[in-house]
Specification:
It is built from 28 helices and seven strands. It is of the alpha+beta class. It has a five-stranded mixed sheet with strand order 3-4-5-7-6, sandwiched between helices. The chain has a two-stranded antiparallel sheet with strand order 1-2. InterPro entries: M3A_DCP, MetalloPept_cat_dom_sf, Neurolysin/TOP_dom2, Pept_M3A_M3B, Pept_M3A_M3B_dom. This is Peptidyl-dipeptidase dcp. Its cofactor is Zn(2+).
Length: about 725
C-alpha cells in the first residue's frame, strides 16, 4: 500500500526486525536499473509497465523501494525547523511513491496471475512488508512531528481539509500502535509479521482448492442445462485439458448456474459440496489451523492496542464505530429474512411434492427449486433473460450509464498501452462536455488458472491535485466463463448487476476530486455504497431498449418480460439475505472473542445454531474459504458493511425515484459532487446528510427486499 494513501504509513523501512542487504551502493543501483521502480511513462501521465513485469524483479525492487522510502522518512525526521503541515504532513503524502507504484504491480499479479512463483514471493515478502509498515508507525521522531502539527491546529491556520488530513494521520498512527511502549511495539510488530504470513498462507490454500473442477462425462450429466451453459462448460473442459467432456469450475460464476438448472440432483450435491468445502477437506489446503492462528493473533493485537476485541479495533474508523450498532442492524434484517426463507422453502417443497419427488429441500436444491417457483409464481424463467445480456453489450450499457449520469465517455485504447494478459481491455475516460482527459480504465473479465475468484475493483493510481494534477487509473476484474469460439458470452441478470456494481467502484475512483491522496480512501462500511447503488440502473428502460437486445433477433427486451422481472424483484430475497447475513454475523461474532481462542469449525456450527440459521441455506462464504476475512484485515469484522452500505444505497436510489427519473440531472450532480468526488475529505455521515438532507432510512432497504417496514429510520450516526 503506498504511503501517500495510508494513515499513517504504508510500506515502510526495514531496520527493526528485518535486515536485508541494504548497503548504500546496492539499493541505488537497483533503483536505477530495475524497470519496476521507474516512473511510469507513456501517455495519460504514465501507465503501468506490464510489459516489463517479471517475478524475479520484484524482490530486489521491493528492497530498494523500501530503502528509498526510508530515506524519505529520515529526511522528514531530520528537519530542525518546527513541524508544520507542509514539512511533515505533506511530506508524508509524498514519501514512498516508487514503493506505491511497485505495490500496484505486485497486487495485480498476485490477484490476476498468481502463478506459483508469485505465491512464493508473497509468502516471503509479506512479513517484510508488515515490518516495514511498523517501522514508520513506531518512529518516535516522526510521530512527535505529526503530533506537533495536530496540536497546532488550534491556531486556525490550516484549511478544513488540512485539519482533517492532520487529525486522520495522527489517529492512524495511534491506532497502529505509535503510543505503545518499546516492548509492546516489538510484540505488536511480531504479531503483524505473523499475520502477514498467515494471510498469504490462507490465500495460497484457497487458490489451490479453487483450481479444481467437476468433470461431466456424458450427455446425461447435462440434463436441464441451457445450451449456452453447456457450451461454456465444454470450453472450460478444453481449457483444463479434458477435451470432449464438460467442466464445472470450482468458482461461483460456474457453480451457481449449474445449481440453478441441472436436474441431476446427485450432481448438484456433488458440485455444491465441492464448492462449499474449499479449505475444509483435511488435506494440505485445509485452512482451519490458519484461521485459528489469525483470529488469536488479531485478538492479541487488539488487547495490546487497548481495544476490547479485534472488532472494536477494526470498527474504530468506520461509520458504525461500535460493533453493537452493526449487530443491531444485522439482526433487525435477519429476523424477517429467516421468516421469508421458511415461506420460500415451503413453496419449493410443494413443487417437489407435485412433481412426485419425495425429498426434503437441501442447500443444493435451493436455487434449482427457486427457479421452478419463480416460473410458477411469476411465469419467469431466467433463461429467458440471458439472451439479452451479451457481455459486450452489458459493458457498453455501463459506459452509457456513466455518460448519461456523469458526462464520462469511454474510448477503447487496447493495443496502445501494455497489459498483463491478452484478455485485458483498456479505455481512456474523458469528460464529454470539455474533452478533458479524466483517467484510464482497465478491465479483465474472464476466469483463468491462478486468478482469484469473484469480482473486484482495484485502483492503479489515485487522483490528487496535490503535486499534480494527477489523473486516476482504475480497473474492474470479473470471472466470467468464456464461451466456445465464435459464440457470445451470455451472462445472467445477477452477473450484469455484479458488473455494474464493480463499475460503481471504478466510477468512484474516476470521479474522485481531492487534494490529498490521504483523504481519498473511505471507511469500509461506506465504500460499497457507490457500487451498490449503481446496480439499480441495469433494468432502466433506456438501457434495455438500446443495449440489452436479444443477441440473435436484436429485439429489445419486451416490457412484459421486464414487468415479470420487476414483479419478481423481491422473490428469493430470504435466501439472498440469509446467505449473506449468516456470513456477516459469524464474522462479527468471531472477531468479538476477547481472547481469540477458537475452533473455527465448531464456532461456525455453534453460531449458526444460536441465530437459528435455516439448514436449507448455507453461508455465502463459509469460514474455511472466507477470503474477505483471512487474506488481509480489510473486511474482518467488516462484512456487515455491505448491509450498512446498502441502507444508504437503497435510500439514495429512492432519491432518484422521488425525482421522477433514474437520470434526474440534479440528483445525479449532487451524487457526483457530494458522494463520489469528495473521497473522505468530509465526514461520510455528514456527506450523506448533505446529499439527502437527512439520515439514511433503513426502511428503504427493507421495502426493496419485501420485508416488513416500520420503526426508527436511523441506522446509526457517525458519533
Amino acid at each position: 500500500m503506498p504511503l501517500e494513501s495510508f494513515m499513517p504509513a504504508g510500506f515502510a523501512v526495514l531496520g527493526l526486525l528485518v535486515n536485508p542487504v541494504n548497503s548504500p551502493a546496492q539499493p541505488a543501483a537497483t533503483a536505477a536499473t530495475n524497470p519496476l521502480l521507474q516512473e511510469w511513462t507513456g501517455p495519460y501521465g504514465g501507465v503501468p509497465p506490464w510489459d516489463k513485469v517479471l517475478p524475479e524483479l520484484f524482490k530486489p525492487a521491493f528492497l530498494a523501494a523500501i530503502d528509498l522510502q526510508r530515506q524519505d522518512i529520515e529526511a522528514i525526521t531530520k528537519i530542525t525547523a518546527p513541524a508544520t503541515f507542509a514539512n511533515t504532513i505533506e511530506a508524508l503524502q509524498r514519501a514512498g511513491r516508487p514503493l506505491g507504484r511497485l505495490d500496484v504491480l505486485f497486487g495485480v499479479m498476485t490477484s490476476n496471475r498468481n502463478a506459483p512463483e508469485y505465491q512464493a514471493l508473497d509468502r516471503e515478502l509479506s512479513p517484510i512488508f508488515a515490518a516495514a509498515d511498523d517501522e514508520i508507525t513506531f518512529n518516535e521522531r516522526l510521530f512527535a512531528r505529526v503530533a506537533a502539527v495536530r496540536d497546532s491546529m488550534a491556531r486556525g491556520d490550516l484549511t478544513a481539509e488540512q485539519q482533517r488530513l492532520t487529525q486522520r494521520t495522527y489517529d492512524g498512527f495511534v491506532r497502529q500502535g505509535a503510543k505503545l511502549s518499546a516492548a509492546d511495539k516489538q510484540q505488536l510488530s511480531k504479531i503483524n509479521q505473523e499475520l502477514a504470513g498467515a494471510f498469504s498462507d490462507f490465500a495460497t490454500k484457497i487458490l489451490a482448492d479453487e483450481d479444481t473442477w467437476i468433470t461431466l462425462d456424458s450427455e446425461a450429466d447435462l440434463a436441464g442445462l441451457p445450451t449456452a451453459l453447456v457450451s461454456a462448460y465444454k470450453a472450460a473442459a478444453a481449457e483444463h485439458k479434458v477435451p470432449g467432456k464438460w467442466a464445472v469450475v470450482n468458482t461461483r460464476s460456474s457453480v451457481d448456474p449449474f445449481l440453478t438448472f441441472a436436474s441431476r440432483r446427485d450432481l448438484r450435491e456433488k458440485v455444491w459440496t465441492t464448492f462449499k468445502s474449499r479449505g475444509d477437506n483435511g488435506n494440505a489446503n485445509d485452512t482451519h489451523a490458519v484461521i485459528a492462528r489469525i483470529v488469536k493473533l488479531r485478538a492479541d493485537r487488539a488487547r495490546l492496542l487497548g481495544f476490547a476485541s479485534h472488532a472494536h479495533w477494526r470498527m474504530d474508523d468506520t461509520m458504525a464505530r461500535d460493533p453493537q450498532k452493526a449487530t443491531e442492524l444485522m439482526m433487525r434484517v435477519w429476523t424477517p429474512a429467516v421468516a421469508r426463507v421458511k415461506e420460500e422453502v415451503a413453496d419449493m417443497q410443494a413443487i417437489a411434492a407435485r412433481e412426485g419427488q419425495a425429498i426434503t429441500i437441501e442447500p443444493w436444491d435451493y436455487l434449482y427449486y427457486a427457479e421452478k417457483v419463480r416460473k410458477a409464481k411469476y411465469d419467469l424463467d431466467t433463461n429467458e433473460l440471458k439472451p439479452y445480456f451479451e457481455l459486450n453489450n452489458v459493458i457498453a450499457a455501463s459506459y452509457a450509464m456513466a455518460e448519461k449520469l456523469y458526462g464520462l465517455t469511454f474510448t477503447e485504447i487496447t493495443g496502445t498501452v501494455p497489459v498483463f494478459h491478452p484478455d485485458v481491455r483498456v479505455f481512456e475516460v474523458k469528460d464529454k462536455a470539455t474533452g478533458r482527459h479524466v483517467g484510464v480504465y482497465y478491465r479483465d473479465d474472464f476466469a483463468r488458472q491462478y486468478k482469484r475468484s469473484g469480482a473486484w475493483a482495484s485502483g492503479y493510481r489515485g487522483q490528487r491535485r496535490f503535486d499534480g494534477p494527477v489523473t486516476p487509473i482504475t480497473s474492474n476484474n470479473n470471472n466470467f466463463v468464456k464461451a466456445a469460439a465464435g459464440e457470445p458470452v451470455l451472462i445472467s441478470l445477477d452477473d450484469a448487476e455484479t458488473l455494474f456494481h464493480e463499475f460503481g467502484h471504478a466510477l468512484h475512483g474516476l470521479l474522485m476530486d481531492v487534494t490529498y491522496p490521504g483523504l481519498a480512501g473511505t471507511p469500509r462500511d461506506f465504500v460499497e455504497f457507490p457500487s451498490q447503488v449503481h446496480e439499480n440502473w441495469v433494468l432502466t428502460r433506456d438501457l434495455l431498449d438500446t443495449y440489452f437486445r436479444h443477441y440473435q433477433t436484436k429485439a429489445p427486451m419486451p416490457q412484459a418480460l421486464v414487468d415479470k422481472v420487476n414483479n419478481a424483484s423481491k422473490f428469493n430475497q430470504g435466501y439472498a439475505t440469509v446467505e449473506y447475513l449468516a456470513s456477516a454475523i459469524v464474522d462479527m461474532r468471531l472477531h468479538l472473542l476477547p481472547d481469540g481462542v477458537v475452533d473455527p469449525d465448531a464456532f461456525e456450527r455453534k453460531t449458526l445454531a444460536e441465530i437459528g440459521a435455516p439448514k436449507e441455506v448455507a453461508m455465502r462464504h463459509r469460514l474455511p474459504q472466507f477470503n474477505h476475512l483471512f487474506t488481509s484485515d480489510s473486511y474482518s469484522a467488516g462484512y456487515y458493511s455491505y448491509l450498512w452500505s446498502d441502507v444508504m444505497a437503497s435510500d439514495a436510489w429512492a432519491a432518484f425515484e422521488e425525482a421522477g427519473s433514474p437520470w434526474d440531472p440534479a440528483v445525479a450532480q449532487k451524487f457526483k459532487t457530494i458522494i463520489l468526488a469528495t473521497g473522505n475529505s468530509i465526514d461520510r455521515a455528514e456527506a450523506y446528510r448533505r446529499f439527502r438532507g437527512r439520515e439514511p432510512d433503513v426502511n428503504a432497504l427493507l421495502q426493496n427486499r419485501g420485508f416488513p417496514v416500520g420503526g426508527s429510520s436511523d441506522k446509526g450516526r457517525d458519533d
